Amino acid sequence: MATAFLPVFLFVLAGLATSLGMLSMGWAFGPARKGRVKEMPYESGMDPIHDARRRFDVRFHLVAIAFVLFDVELLFLYPWAVANRHPEGIDAAVAKAGALNVDYSRMLVFGEVMVFLAILALGFVYVWRKGVFQWR
Amino acid sequence: MFSDTTTVWVLWPEIALAALAVWIYVGNALFRPKPNTQTRLGWTTFAAAAVAFAGFALYWHQGGAVWRQSLVLEGHGPLAIDYFAYAMRTVALLAGFLLVLQASRAGENELVSEYLGTLLLAIVGVMLTASANELIFLFLGLEMLSIPTYVLLFLGRRDGATAEATIKYFFLSVASSAMLLYGFGFLYGMAGSTSLTEIRAALETSSAADGGLMTMAPLALILVFAGLGFRIAAAPFHFYAPDVYQGATHANASLLSILPKIAGVVVFVRLVGVTMPALGDFAWQLAIVLSILTMTIGNVSALWQTNLRRLMAYSSIAHSGYMLIGLAVALAASPAEAATGGLSSVILYLFVYVFATLGAFAAFTYLGAKDREVNRIDELAGVAKTRPVAAAIIAVCMFSLSGIPPLAGFWGKLALFGNAIRLATNTESATLQWWFIVLAVVGVLNAAVAAAYYLRIVGVMYFRTADTALPSQGGWGAWSAAAAAAAMVLAVGVLPGRLFDNAQRAELAVKGIALPEGLSQADAPTSLAK
To answer: Which of A12, B251, B261, B437 has the fewest CB atoms inside 10 Å of its own CB, making it the most exposed?
Structure first.
């Protein structure tokens, strides 16, 4: 019982140590400049409290969209990569489908992932041609 | 449940349409043409051709097989390949074709490829929803419809009202999706499967035995009604519709009153009407109460509207109420396995509603201009003199929506009210008799109330004179979309037999009943039949 939860306990300790360590190192070694802008809760050059309709620089938005493009790609590719060689992954699913006499193969899974990548690549071409990567 | 090769093969019209939509985005970005009327015309033609291609592909590839019911895909992935799915995919493509034409001058020139590509993706979403027989697939189809809808609403016009309408629609749509997912979660928890066929089997076996986990079924039903009620704008989830329609352009308002309505009704039919009749009395009572509430709120509120799109929003709410009558009939009729006409009247009414609404909105789009839309009903004064054809189209659509005999809307209402009364007269149970007679009476009274505001529009057009003429710069596309929709309404009104047959066939198919003798033909082997 005691050993079963030891990793969890260690994880909590390591988490606490990391966050406290970062905060204290920043407090000890960081340059401490004061000023109205530096003391804002969200230091980004924008006033965080204002009317919701105010316009803000569209570059923030574009960076966010481009981030989502690659973030989603990773989110989907990672499980696929794991399932590829895992004993209970794609091979098991193909065997199960074969038992049910369903037309399902590794090639189909591979093809679906390639289609997904192609769509993402087209999205990349789209944002590139629309000039998102030019920092104007 | 596997999305196997057959799934891809069946869905290829959808896949082709999505690929063409992606090409509209990327192709326009690659060539970077000058944003003028010429490129806009080119991309509109391309989008219309893409929808037409998907329609012909669907017809040529699967039409014959689903018509003969020779295409059975038991255990073949998350799809339901029956005549109901096929018919709804066809309706989505027909309506989508007219929506593309209607938008030929809506929005801004430099964003035309974004508008058209997103519109095609929304159509694909409706088509996927129509063929889904599995909870996850169903949800993905609905999201594939809603996410493009948010973008389309934003692309309509650049002002505060549009932004407000879009944000309102976005937040409420997200909330309704969450409720629907919660309901799906309960269904999965009870049945242990995401397949609708297996959920239906689990609900039936358990209602025979004692409750247990299945006591959660009414909760799941309520959540599903909440999620789908938003999509079709049924009370008490209708309150967003007037504000959002008013803030949107005419082209977008017509899209909002058509595509989510098709998708919502399709899911109501398959998920509630076919999968959950085992819930017994609770299901049809809920449907009746919501139906009465929805049509009364819609019709009574529409009476004192002065804004055209607000009025059409309440009209859209009221028609959802009528469609719920058919659902209630389908849920109350016994035995649940028989074709009792409830679902076929919903399908019939949906078709009739979609084209009458589309015709009216397309005509309003045609009468306006990009920077000056027709907002108030009074602005339509004297249109019969200045634009006689457009006025005639609007009049035909309004008469059809109010259900006046020689037009399509009459047959829709006849089927719905007739089925409710037939159920009441054929049943032994006094409760059922009472409820369904009340439902039919309220429905007929509502239809009479509705005639007042539809005929007011016709009256303004024909019996009042205009101070200034309307710009009428919506383009040939909007005009031909309106004319085609009005022609469809007229044709169905004069020759309704074909549509009744199709709706009945769709009901038989969605309930998994074999075609009776005479309807079925010799089973020819097709490329898809296993």
So the answer is: A12
- Asked if A125 lies within 8 A of B76 by C-beta distance, the reply is no
Measured in angstroms, the CA of A43 and the nearest CA of chain B are apart by: 27
Compare CB distances from A103 to B6, B25, B160 and report the shortest one's residue.
B6
State whether residue A104 sits within 8 Å of chain B by CB: yes
Which residues of A, range 27-66, sit inside 8 Å of B by Cβ?
53
Query: Nearest Cα to B113, choosing from B65, B168, B169, B42?
Result: B42
What ipTM is given for this predicted complex? 0.78
pLDDT (tens digit per residue) in B426-436: 888 888 899 99
Q: Which residues of B touch A119 (CB under 8 A)?
A: 22
Judge whether A21 lies within some domain.
no
B2 in contact with A at a CB cutoff of 8 Å?
A: yes
- Provide the domain count of chain A: 1
pLDDT tens digits for A101-126? Answer: 777 888 888 998 999 899 888 988 88
Question: Nearest Cβ partner of B26 from A97, A105, A126?
Answer: A126
- B313-327 burial, b at 16+ Cβ within 10 Å, e below that, comes to bbbbbbbbbbbbbbb
**B32: burial class by Cβ within 10 Å (0-12, 13-18, 19+)?**
exposed
Nearest chain A residue to B110 by CA distance is: A130
pLDDT digits (tens, 9 = 90+) for A6-58: 888 999 999 999 999 999 999 998 887 777 777 777 766 677 777 777 777 77
The residue segments making up the domain with residue A85 are 56-129
Q: Nearest-CA distance from B186 to chain A in Å? A: 26
Any B CB within 8 A of A17 CB: no
Other beta carbons within 10 angstroms of residue A100's beta carbon come to 12
pTM for the full predicted model: 0.88
Residue A134, domain member (yes or no): no
Q: If chain B, 530 residues long, is cut into consecutive pieces of 10 residues, what is the mean pLDDT of each piece? A: 76 94 92 81 91 92 76 64 91 96 81 92 95 92 95 88 92 95 92 87 73 78 94 91 93 94 94 85 91 95 93 96 94 78 93 95 91 88 90 95 91 93 87 92 94 94 85 88 95 91 88 67 37
Cross-strand pairs, B529: none
Contact list in B for residue A106 (CB cut-off 8 A) is: none
CA atoms within 13 A on the CB side of B267: 33
CB proximity B8 to A under 8 Å: yes
**Domain boundaries in chain B?**
5-510
Q: B351-381 in b/e burial notation, b at 16+ Cβ within 10 A? A: bbbbbbbbbbbbbbbbbbbbeebbbebebbb
